[in-house]
Amino acid sequence: MNFRLEQAIEMLERTPATLEALLSGLSEDWLSCNEGEGTWNASEVVAHLIEGERTNWIPRLEWLLREGEGKPFPPFDRYSHLNGAADASIDRKLREFREIRLQNTAKLKELIDSEERLEALGTHPAFGAVKARELASTWVAHDLTHIAQIVRVMAERYREDVGPWIAYLGILNKERQ
Amino acid sequence: MNFRLEQAIEMLERTPATLEALLSGLSEDWLSCNEGEGTWNASEVVAHLIEGERTNWIPRLEWLLREGEGKPFPPFDRYSHLNGAADASIDRKLREFREIRLQNTAKLKELIDSEERLEALGTHPAFGAVKARELASTWVAHDLTHIAQIVRVMAERYREDVGPWIAYLGILNKERQ
C-alpha cells in the first residue's frame, strides 16, 4: 500500500489550482467540446467534481466513521451535476470547487486524526465492506481520473488536425477510458 | 478541422502553469513513481517536454517553412531527455519549461503570420508530406498526452489502495496508453 494521508492531501489540495491553470479563461470551443453524445465536456467535469465534494467524499467518510459497517452509504447519483447549475461560468465553477475542496481537506484532517481511523470499516451499497483508507485513496484517484478525462476530451478536438502524427499520440490511439 | 492558431496558443500557454500547479512542491514519492521498468515518472515527462521545446516543435516548424518539401526534418531523439540534466529539481525543470515555452509561443506567432502559412508543406522522415498546421496541432495534442500521462502514472500508485473502487476508476482500468 502506498497511501499516506499527508501525500493524499498534497494531491487533493492541488487539483483546484491545476484545473484553474488549465481551464480559466479558455475559449468556449475548448470548454464545451466533448467526445460525442452522452459524454462530458471540461465544464461538466468540474461540475461533477463540485458535486462529489458536496455529496460524496466527506459525507461518506463521516457516515462510515459514524455508522461503521451497520448502515450502508446512501446511494450517490453520479449524474446529478448535469441537472442544476451546470451552466454557471467556468470561472464561477472553478472558484466554487476551490472553496469547497479547501473546506473538505480541512475536514479530512480533522476526521482522520490517527492511522487507526484509516482502517475504520463501512459498507458500500455495491461493494460491501470498505475502509476509510480506500475511500480517501479513491478520492485522490478520482481527481486524477477526471484531470486525465479533461485533457483527453480536449485532445480529441485535434484528432483530424494532427494528420499522420496521430500514430505517435497515445491519447488519440486507444479505447475510450 | 478544428485548429485555430489563437486557440492552440491558449493551450500551449497554459501547460507550464498547469504542471506547476500540479507538481511544484509535491512529495518525491509522487514525482518519482512510474508505471514500471522503462516508463517515465512525472519529472522525466517534464524533462521530455523541455527537450521538445529545444529540438522538436519550433526547430521543425522553422525547417518546414525554410526548406519546404525538399529536405526532410532531421531525426529527433524522443529519449534524449533521459541523458543530461534529468536530475535537476522539479522546480528548476518547471521554471525552465515555462521560460522556453514562452519564447516558443512568441516565435510561433511570428512564424505563422497568416492562415496560408499553416498550409505550408514539409517532409517528415517517416510520414512524408506534412503541413505546418499538422505540426502545430500535434504540439498541442502532445502537451495534452503528457499531462494525461502524468496523472495516470500518479493514479497508478493507488492501484491497490483504492480497494474495490478500482471498478469505477477508468484511469486504472484500461490498457496502458
Automatic annotation (TrEMBL), chains A, B:
<dbReference type="InterPro" id="IPR034660">
    <property type="entry name" value="DinB/YfiT-like"/>
</dbReference>
<dbReference type="InterPro" id="IPR024775">
    <property type="entry name" value="DinB-like"/>
</dbReference>
<protein>
    <submittedName>
        <fullName>DinB family protein</fullName>
    </submittedName>
</protein>
<feature type="domain" description="DinB-like">
    <location>
        <begin position="12"/>
        <end position="150"/>
    </location>
</feature>
<dbReference type="Pfam" id="PF12867">
    <property type="entry name" value="DinB_2"/>
</dbReference>
